[in-house]
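Ticket #4471: structure output looks truncated?

Reporter: J.K.
Steps to reproduce: submitted the chain below (297 residues) through the standard prediction queue, then opened the result file.
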Amino acid sequence: MPDLAPHELRVLVAVAEEGGFSAAATTLGMTQSAVSHSVRTSERKLGAVLFERGRRGASPTAAGTRAVGHARRVLRLLDLMGAEVRGATEGDAAPGALSGVLRIAAFRSAALHLLPPALEALRARHPGVTPEVRMVRELGPGTAGEVAEGRADLGIATLGTSSPVPPGLLGGELVEEGYALVHPAGHPAPRSLPLVDWAENCSSYTRTWWAGQEWLPKATVQAEDDGAVLSMVSGGHGMAVLPRLSLTGAPPTVEITDLGPDRPTRSVGYVTTPELARTALVRALIRELRSAAAETA
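Returned output as attached by the reporter:
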C-alpha cells in the first residue's frame, strides 16, 4: 500500500476539523478540487471511505475517525522531530535543552491542583517549553480519548475499569486518592443533609461502595463539576462525597470527615501514545508529574 504523504495527512485533519472540503481548502490555502482529489487519493490508498459527503459538508466515517486520529499523531511526531534531534545533541537532562509546544489534556481537579506544580518545575528547567492545557470532562472518551485522537500528547486521566486505557495507548499511575465526606462546618447531623453530586463523580470504583451505604440518599442536586459541588456544600445546601484532589484548598466553611478504611478510592494517572512516550518532552513532563504527585501524597 502506498504511504500517505504529510500533506495528505494534513488535508484529512483539516477536512475533519473544518467539517467540509470547502472550509478545509480555505484553511489550507488550496482549491476545493485539490482537497477533494487529495481525499480521494487517500481513500484509494487506504481502501476505505473516510468521509460521508453531504450538502452540509463532510463528516468522518468510522474508518475516517481512525485515519484522522493516526494522521494527527503522525503529524505531531513530525513536529517534534526537530526538538528531539536538538535534545539528542544537547542531552535531554541538560537544563534548557528542550523546547516546543507540549499539549496536555486534564480533568478539572487535576488541571487545578496536580498539573500546575509539575508545569512550574518543567518550565523552570526548560524555559523553551510551552504547555498548552485543555480541560476535558472525564465522561465518555475523556482525556484518554484526546490522546487517542491525536489532540493531546499526554492526558491526565482517571484510570480504572470504567475508564480503561484505550488499546494502543500507554498509561501509568500517579496517585491513588481517597474519597471523603464533605459537609457544612459545624452541622450537627451532616448525614441528614441532601446529597450534592456531579456526573463525573460516580463510576465503577465508587458505585459498589455507594450502593452499600444506606445513609447516602439519591442526589437531589446535580452540579456541573466538583467545584460547583464544593460551593454548594460551602453554602450549606447539602453534603457530598468527593475525592481528595477536589478538596484541595477547601474553604473553612466546610468540614471534611474521613470515611474510614473501606472508603472508595480512584487512581489518577497519565496516558500517552507509545511513540510520544519515547520523546524527551513527554518523558520530562511525566517525571515532573510523578514528583508533584509524590508531594500531594
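Triage note (M.O.): checked the attachment and the full C-alpha cell line is present. Residues 1-90 form a domain with the Arc Repressor Mutant, subunit A fold (CATH 1.10.10.10).
Status: closed, working as intended.
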